[in-house]
Give the backbone structure.
Amino acid sequence: MKFIRRQGVGSNVPTSSMADIIFLLLIFFMVTTIFKLEEGLPIKLPRAESGADQERERLLHIWADRYSRISINDKLVRIESVHAIIASRLEENRGLIIAFNVDHKAKYHLVSDIMEQLKDANAVNVSFTSIMEEGH
């Protein structure tokens, strides 16, 4: 008995229309997906009538960097002296606004310690900002 060898039947999948099928599936899922927006409470936020620059005497800048250095109006200070400096400046000017500028890589305990010092000095007008690394 003699066996005849046949050429192997190709088992390849045509991929020429694969991109079309993927594109159609993508469009289908984009059209049928429902995005629910959170509505929250119905509130109306106040709008500012106009912006005004603050006088330099009304601002006090506190800077904290990632190396745990603290600067108040461009003077390096220790964490223990923040309360005394803020309290004396608040006695001079009760309308003092404290701008608390923190590096985004500063340690949380440093920020917490400074906030405790501000709270102990009874500083109520505090604005918080974050400073990004240069090059980002």
